Amino acid sequence: MAAAQRTVIENCSIATVDADDTEYGHGHVVIAGNRIESLGAGRAPEGLENVVRRIDASGHLVTPGLVNTHHHFYQWITRGLATDHNLFNWLVALYPTWARIDEPMVYSAAQGSLAMMARGGVTTAMDHHYVFPKDSGDLSGAIIRAARETGVRFTLARGSMDRSEKDGGLPPDFAVETLEGALAATEATVKEHHDASFDSMTQVAVAPCSPFSVSTELLREGAELARRLGVRLHTHGSETVEEEQFCKELFGMGPTDYFESTGWLGEDVWMAHCVHMNDSDIAAFARTKTGVAHCPSSNARLAAGIARVPDMLAGGVPVGLGVDGTASNESGELHTELRNALLINRLGAHREAALNARQALRLGTYGGAQVLGRSAEIGSLEPGKLADLVLWKLDTLAHASIADPVTALVFGAAAPVTASFVNGRQIVEDNRLLHVDEDAIARSTRAEAQRLARIAAQG
Ligand SMILES: [Zn+2]
């Protein structure tokens, strides 16, 4: 077998986000093949063989690649609609449009969502896709194809909905699948696309949409299916006060108790939002190691509230960050969520002690890897882990006078990405994507957004 090719990165600051938060003011990282071979203070060791590239990263901070733990790619083509609504009103306004999506729309929207995140330092993305109109094509296949082309590591959370208006749910009747249809399609997607290996680029999770759009049977049988297939579970939970009321009226209990009763707490589960959690809900997540995808911008956009992230972290709950769908976070960027998570949590009960810059960076990297079940492989810079890392340029006007690099990255303006590597392969250079054409994606997403608007207007 040929010896692995090496890339040497030198003269940079490094935030490893390892268990001790080790940082180097002037250090090096050596990538060999798709792994991190070594890193540390000073220059790289002399005499390394097969060095194909040497990067002088002066003025840069190197961090693990960002991990996005909650998104809905298809919403890229319904941005800027229902901009002054709360969650339930926003959903009711948008479902009729979303129910008209087809494969070319979903592919184009996935390209747009992925491109925006990747050029901002995301190296692992996920898509919670739950709208599968009848005869709309191979939506899961299209999403996975877009992720492969962009070059990011990817988890598809195969979503589903089977509780429509006629059953007291929010989606219109024509926008949902049957219980049996959803379970069969989810199982087929796992069997076709899930790769459980250490350096896997594609994984699949079982992901019914939310308590107010799926039946109790779909939650229960979805959990059984995921455990039979050995894959993770994802859904929305405790997002708004309206959801809490909905659960109490329909099921006689709050969302967390309802999830527990359907098999939806556990270390193989992560849930988006978790805003309205009391002490016993947080204790239940901590006890079961259920993960949380914290989506601060979306929660603000939909006036949902402030998740109790400091209390979750204090209890040992795994917490990552999420963009959420771009119909409720039009920017679609994750690196700005580091700052938003920190600022929004400081508006909550813990005030200035809520989160610091290092904790915010940890949420966006290692915390994300934990909730996706991949913390052995990614999320921190350590020898033997996969080479998913970002070079942030911090020596220009925006950041050069900020006291330290991690503070600059989190508190400062969105930092430019000089290079981003996934699995040892470079996918971004000087803020441009290397394997897909950003301008062509901008054009196609605009065309598909207009086509969807036209079809939706016809009713
Ligand atoms: Zn969501």
TrEMBL record:
<keyword id="KW-0378">Hydrolase</keyword>
<dbReference type="InterPro" id="IPR032466">
    <property type="entry name" value="Metal_Hydrolase"/>
</dbReference>
<dbReference type="Pfam" id="PF01979">
    <property type="entry name" value="Amidohydro_1"/>
</dbReference>
<dbReference type="InterPro" id="IPR011059">
    <property type="entry name" value="Metal-dep_hydrolase_composite"/>
</dbReference>
<dbReference type="InterPro" id="IPR050287">
    <property type="entry name" value="MTA/SAH_deaminase"/>
</dbReference>
<feature type="domain" description="Amidohydrolase-related">
    <location>
        <begin position="61"/>
        <end position="425"/>
    </location>
</feature>
<protein>
    <submittedName>
        <fullName>8-oxoguanine deaminase</fullName>
    </submittedName>
</protein>
<dbReference type="InterPro" id="IPR006680">
    <property type="entry name" value="Amidohydro-rel"/>
</dbReference>
